[in-house]
Sequence to fold (690 residues):
Amino acid sequence: MKTTCYALLMSVLLLATQGCKQEEGPQTVPEASVSAASVDPLPSWTEGPTKQAILDFVEAVTTESSSSFVPVADRIATFDNDGNLWSEQPLYFQLQYALDRVKTMAPDHPEWQDQQPFKALMEGDMEALMAEGEAGLIKLVMASHAGMTTEEFNAAVKNWLQTARHPRFDRPYTDLVYQPMLELLSYLRDNGFTTFIVSGGGIDFMRPWTEAVYGIPPHQVVGSSIKTEFDYNEGNPVLRKLPEIDFIDDKAGKPVGIHKFIGKKPVFASGNSDGDLQMLQYTATNPHAFMLYLHHTDGDREWAYDRESHIGRLDKGLDEAEKNGWTVIDMKRDWKVIYPFQVSE
Amino acid sequence: MKTTCYALLMSVLLLATQGCKQEEGPQTVPEASVSAASVDPLPSWTEGPTKQAILDFVEAVTTESSSSFVPVADRIATFDNDGNLWSEQPLYFQLQYALDRVKTMAPDHPEWQDQQPFKALMEGDMEALMAEGEAGLIKLVMASHAGMTTEEFNAAVKNWLQTARHPRFDRPYTDLVYQPMLELLSYLRDNGFTTFIVSGGGIDFMRPWTEAVYGIPPHQVVGSSIKTEFDYNEGNPVLRKLPEIDFIDDKAGKPVGIHKFIGKKPVFASGNSDGDLQMLQYTATNPHAFMLYLHHTDGDREWAYDRESHIGRLDKGLDEAEKNGWTVIDMKRDWKVIYPFQVSE
Fold:
């Protein structure tokens, strides 16, 4: 928890010091090989060793005569979400939701006008917000995520996704999913894999939209959570979200979350940060498993960051990938296109 | 937890006072309508209001022009396990596993010879075992469920299922699943439902066999759990099971477990005891939902018990079912056959 919250806090600082708006880089919109899509399951991936490694893995584990054959029931594929299936800059999207939500709720909470960190947020006083530290950040997250029914929270998330716009691209946040990863998810499912999200982000924040956006139903989403309690509510039972951490699905929590929610060891795991390292290490103990890291190398079309980043730091993971021969996606080199809205018709 | 453990404790008492062996009642082996199986999805169910209510529900929610139509993505069906998909007498099967496992482990634990409740169990001294109370029972459960890797536990459960025999039927415990419920599970899946187990029993105890026995994969099994921790284990990462409760999926914990693991409200819920009541009440808040209780009324072919039973007590649930018009299976009346091995060829 400490590290996760620290990362969130740092991302608030980043936002404060750099501002929301970033210079938009040149949009490279390659010609998508639409005509070849029927034969190429990964049309947005550049031909090369990364794409070939994925194709080779899938062929090996799905060929019955192969010594690497894996039965359908054991074809478990896990994907981190933030920075792996959608972008995570300049601020984890869920944290942006928390900040926006607190502002939306403020008129009903006049007491916040004199309470930190709410006062600082409302006044845009980032120095005062930072001074509240991790405890202040947790107050913002709990104020925006707890104290309501699960259905009220679902509705608030859906409403935010319909109305909020990403500061750099001026588009809904769910537009910022990675086209090549959508193709990879479909490709794996077409080959008998069951695809799961295993994210450090909030499970309740993801579930309202993952089915429509990724084709991943709520029960195949694993993430961090706060506790809920059953309330008879005078004959109309509801579940209420409590301001208390239940589970942190990050770092060593990811294998624990995989066991808790999935109950089988993955044979394919995909992540982009050191928070995914234990998931990949755990997966690697499965014979024939495939471990995939996404390296953010494209400062023009997306963002470039790795070892020193406060968001999505990828440091130990890069070393482990090289040491163990895991596949690393070089975003700039390996992806013809980043987002679905850039695919030319 | 308290109530669950109390029920377990009472079932130990029952075992001690009644003995393991029960008189085997006459086996009614009806002629299964094999020839009609292609048209009748529920051949082991007697024609009548219970079977008809199930057929009517499925037709209503799967007919697009119906005002009760439910999209495939929302066809979530949850089933309790003990006493609902398989038998639970004379002792919850998982508790029998715990007792057997402790005996198997005893040679490696000479210290147990002087420690309660182990000493009492080994000596078959039920009075002394009872004297250890709930705390003693928890020691037996933790000794048999924690202190090993998840893979070691899986292997031990699978081994037990292959070797242990139920005292009344002298068959593997997984033979004591209910044929009519297997048909119901298949029927719902054939109609676009996703079927889940939501049990007060241990999630890790069920997952090694639910896929083969019920067609329900591990990630669609919800249950009670103890904590696990990730251990690097000198470069061979494992998950170790800790002697600490993580989650109790019983009573008000069932809606919480449904939200935590499934993330959607069921439209069909099936149980057999007061431990399932909140699951059914929560499901009932979903429009068009179907609530099903199994009433154990067949002392000859299975067991007859309800309001006063220490195992699978069904008291408040019967009243609520009548008040709310929920469907109640009368096992004796509604099921032509109980177990798959009784189906005539």
Remarks:
- Residues 2-18 of chain B form the longest helix (17 residues).
- Residues 1-6, 12-37 of chain B have pLDDT under 50 and may be disordered.
- The beta strands of chain B are 76-79, 194-202, 221-231, 238-247, 268-271, 290-297, 304-305, 327-330.
